[in-house]
Every structure is written in structure tokens, then in C-alpha cells.
Design goal:
With 235 residues, the chain is of the alpha/beta class. 49% of the residues lie in helices and 23% in strands. The chain has a seven-stranded mixed sheet with strand order 3-2-1-4-5-7-6, sandwiched between helices. Helix 3 links the parallel strand 1 and strand 2. The longest helix has 24 residues. The protein binds S-adenosylmethionine.
Length: 235
């Protein structure tokens, strides 16, 4: 099994407890990050929305926020599609959201026509994509010119100080134990802090997006820089 297959297999294993663990570990703070991502994007993209595609959709929560925030602001979405290679995660999503559409696929091969999507999001997913450069090229292929890629992710930071010590302690000591306990899969929740350490800084992420043909329009770090939102427009 290669590295990417192992990651997907890990998500298959934790899928039944993913939502529960996420609720406890994030203490609900991610809700405001998700809503902000949707609102900032809708404010920027004023055209009709034919298609929003959520890559690494997991159990479907980000799709639900796209819908809820659109309803709040009176925007209509032609079609909302979730894409994820994990059958386990998508299985849970289908039970939660029977009216949403999903497809089992990898970020590097999205079963959509060129220039068909208005908005493409990936929340806490891009860090798991081994062939990231390929995925960014694929995002550029399926997005319309002027469309937006919206990334929410835990990014690495090099800051020091007491607050960052607290954050490190939570991410490296508390989270793996608590996540491991809830999911009965310690390895999966050790993977989380390690995958963040191995991931990019926000600047590096923007530079990779630029190489793939996107211009960053909005960057915001939330909650002691635990999470970063990047919104970039396809040139
Ligand atoms: C931490 S979960 C995030 C799920 C969801 N987006 C959310 O915000 O809760 C990461 C997701 O990335 C998916 N994933 C892993 N490798 C992927 C890849 N190569 N392409 C697309 N999705 C991938 C996993 O199956 C998993 O559902």
C-alpha cells in the first residue's frame, strides 16, 4: 500500500467516530472558520453559481455550510458536489446529507469537465493529498477563469512564546490521546500533529497556488494561527 492509500485507509477506519472526535477536539471553533470561508467567498464571487465542488469532503460538513450561508445571503447554488476517495467518510456523509451528491475520487482526478466549477473548496484536506502539485493543477483545470479556490487548513508556524507553547502542548500531547481514546485509533490522531508539522507555512501554500495559476485575494489565520483560510482566484 502506498502512502496515499494508507492515508485513505486511515480515514476509512476513523470514519464512524470522525464527527464525534472532531466536535470534542475542535470544541466547535471550526464552525466560525467554516462560515467565514463561505461568506468571504460569496462576497467576492458575484456571478451565478452553477457548481460548488468540495474536495476531501469527508463527512460533508463544509458542503452544509456552503448551503446554509448561501441561504442566509439569498444566493442560489446550481449544484453542490462532494469529492473524497474514502468510501467510509463518504458513507457517513451520505447518511447525514441524503440529498447531497457525492463521488468517490482523489483530488488529483476530479470527474468534472474543464472550467465547470465556480468555487472549489478543500477544508482540512489538502495536507492529506500526497501529490499536491498535481491536485492544484487539477483545481485550476476544473475551475472557471475568475472562479475561487478556498482552502482551510492547519498550517505550520515557527512562532515561539507561551501561547504557542500551549497550542503545541494541545496539538502534540492532548489531541492524540483524546482523539485516540474517542476513535480507538491512536495512530490516526498521532498522524494529525505530524502531518501539520510536515505541512507548509501559509506563505509557502500561497506560492504553490501562484505556480498553479491562482492569485491569492484573502488570507486569515484564526485562533492562535491554528487554522488558516486562503481564498485565491483563478487567473
Ligand atoms: C480531516 S478530513 C476533512 C474532512 C472535511 N473536509 C472536514 O472539513 O471535516 C480529511 C479528508 O481528506 C480526505 N483525503 C485524503 N486524501 C485525499 C486525496 N488524495 N484527495 C482528496 N481527499 C483526500 C480523507 O478521506 C478525509 O475525508
Amino acid at each position: 500500500m502506498d502512502k496515499q492509500q494508507k492515508i485513505v485507509e486511515m480515514f476509512n477506519n476513523i470514519a464512524p467516530t470522525y464527527d464525534k472526535a472532531n466536535r470534542v477536539l475542535s470544541m466547535g471553533i471550526d464552525i466560525q472558520w467554516r462560515k467565514r470561508a463561505c461568506d468571504e467567498t460569496y462576497n467576492r464571487y458575484r456571478k451565478n453559481i452553477d457548481l460548488i465542488v468540495d474536495i476531501a469532503c469527508g463527512t460533508g460538513d463544509m458542503m452544509d455550510y456552503w448551503k446554509k450561508q448561501a441561504n442566509k445571503s439569498g444566493r442560489k447554488i446550481g449544484k453542490l458536489l462532494g469529492v473524497d476517495p474514502s468510501e467510509g467518510m463518504v458513507g457517513v456523509a451520505k447518511e447525514k446529507f441524503p440529498n447531497f451528491e457525492f463521488v468517490i475520487s482523489d483530488a488529483t482526478s476530479i470527474p468534472l469537465e474543464c472550467e465547470s466549477a465556480d468555487i472549489l473548496s478543500i477544508s482540512y484536506g489538502i495536507r492529506n493529498v500526497v501529490q499536491r502539485t498535481e491536485a492544484f493543477k487539477e483545481f485550476a483545470r476544473v475551475l472557471k477563469t475568475g472562479g475561487y479556490v478556498v482552502i482551510l487548513e492547519f498550517t505550520k508556524d515557527d512562532k515561539k512564546g507561551l501561547l504557542f507553547g500551549v497550542k503545541d502542548f494541545y496539538m502534540n500531547k492532548v489531541l492524540p490521546k483524546l482523539g485516540g481514546f474517542i476513535s480507538k485509533n491512536k495512530e490516526a490522531y498521532e498522524y494529525l500533529p505530524n502531518s501539520i508539522e510536515g505541512f507548509l507555512t501559509s506563505d509557502m501554500l500561497q506560492s504553490e497556488l501562484d505556480d498553479a495559476g491562482f492569485t491569492t485575494e484573502f488570507v486569515k489565520s484564526f485562533s492562535m494561527d491554528i487554522s488558516t483560510l486562503v481564498i485565491a482566484k483563478k487567473r
